From TrEMBL:
Family indicated by similarity: Belongs to the WD repeat PROPPIN family.
Gene field: LOC117139176
PANTHER family found in the cross-reference section: WD-REPEAT PROTEIN INTERACTING WITH PHOSPHOINOSIDES WIPI -RELATED (PTHR11227)
Name of the protein described by the UniProt record: WD repeat domain phosphoinositide-interacting protein 2 isoform X5
Gene3D superfamilies: YVTN repeat-like/Quinoprotein amine dehydrogenase
Natural source organism: Drosophila mauritiana (Fruit fly)
Entry GO terms, CC: cytoplasm
GO BP annotation list: autophagy
Keywords in alphabetical order: Autophagy, Repeat, WD repeat
SMART domains, A to Z: WD40
């Protein structure tokens, strides 16, 4: 999952929040330390797994449900510490030439992102197995690591002027493909759970695209909005890979449904319809192509883009939020962790265009065992 990288967050009395790779726990760091929460019963309670007082942190990553966490403190922003939180022991630490901007983990690799380089560690012994040097300037530390061991890919910006995505095979240690995703620089990246798809958004923020991470082919194009350009903060596939959720600097969170059957249905349409139906369908496709061929590319792109399946409107804009969709106790849930210290739990509607319904709001700043439970209206 993507991290909140603003180091002023903790200074301002706000919190750093981050989900683990399979959305089973939430890490929360404040000026006084950090806590780990289980999400297994988040509809009713938020169980605190661990809490410790520590230096002010601006990065923390937990490896799935294991006891391994990677942390970076404000006091030593060039040093990575890998710890076993249950044993309260430090496994190792590494120092780098410049400030660490992001840390990513999966069961095979640990990635450290600096402004102009990426370090790839073997998760088993923490040794550096490869360094990608002289990357395009990346002051936000934008990168993504697939949680899959089978398709263990690393993605990072390939340009400072355009939205190019470099896909790197982190196991075999070679470049895999370059995807020209957007005309403007990248703002967000996220892999699907299998690692075979990657979602991208640019600094313009109006269009989100999904590509094959293996050959770079475009699979989906999703329109977040037409009215204004926004800054996309969080992109995340659902754990079932059927949805994609995005948050921005606005008050709205958008959920897109990735209908992979649509193309297959269209391709197989002829074999399932009568000749008259098929003629009508063929004529409709011919007419669509003919009409759009006379329109500017920008206009035809709008016609081909998917709209949000559902949305959430939060109390205020300008708050950075991490979003995730996962199944909790056999129910699909949208989780929104915000930098102002709240975790929102929403149900996802079955009807397209509907608003998600608030189930709970947990206060992450409380010190007791359970976070505060506030019923939704």
């Amino acid at each position: 999952m993507m991290s909140l990288l603003g180091r002023t967050d903790v200074d301002a009395g706000e919190v750093f929040v981050n989900f683990n790779q399979n959305i089973t726990s939430l890490a929360v760091a404040t000026s006084g330390g950090y806590s780990l929460y289980s999400l297994g019963s988040v509809d009713s309670t938020l169980d605190k797994i661990y809490h410790t007082k520590s230096d002010e942190l601006f990065l923390i990553e937990r490896l799935f449900e294991s006891s391994l966490v990677a942390i970076v403190s404000q006091r030593a922003p060039r040093k990575l510490k890998v710890c076993h939180f249950k044993k309260q022991s430090e496994i190792c630490n590494y120092s780098y030439a410049n400030t660490i901007l992001a840390v990513k983990l999966n069961r095979e690799r640990l990635i450290v992102c600096l402004e102009e380089s990426l370090y790839i560690h073997n998760i088993q012994d923490m040794k550096v197995v490869h360094t990608i040097r002289d990357t395009p300037c990346n002051p936000q530390g934008l990168c993504a690591l697939s949680s899959s061991s089978e398709h263990c890919y690393l993605a990072y910006p390939g340009s400072v002027t355009a939205g190019e995505v470099q896909i790197f095979d982190a196991i075999n240690l070679h470049a895999k493909t370059m995807i020209p995703a957007h005309d403007t620089p990248l703002a967000a990246l996220a892999f699907s759970p299998s690692g075979t798809e990657i979602a991208t958004a640019s600094e313009r923020g109006t269009v989100i695209r999904v590509f094959s991470s293996q050959d770079g082919s475009r699979l989906f194009e999703l329109r977040r909005g037409l009215k204004r350009c926004v800054s996309i903060v969080s992109l995340s596939f659902s754990t079932c890979a059927e949805y994609l959720v995005s948050s921005s600097n606005t008050e709205t969170v958008h959920i897109f449904r990735l209908d992979r059957s649509a193309t297959e249905t269209a391709e197989g349409h002829g074999s399932k319809q009568s000749s008259d139906d098929w003629m009508g369908y063929s004529f409709f496709r011919f007419l669509s192509k003919t009409v759009t061929s006379y329109l500017p590319t920008q206009v035809t792109d709008v016609f081909s883009q998917g709209r949000a399946f559902a949305s959430v409107t939060l109390p205020e804009a300008g708050v950075r939020r991490m979003c995730a969709i996962t199944t909790i106790q056999k129910q699909l849930r949208l989780l929104i962790a915000s930098q102002d210290g709240y975790l929102y739990v929403y149900s996802i509607p079955t009807v397209e265009g509907a608003e998600c319904q608030l189930i709970k709001r947990h206060d992450l700043r409380l010190e007791d065992h359970y976070a505060m439970d506030i019923k939704g209206a």
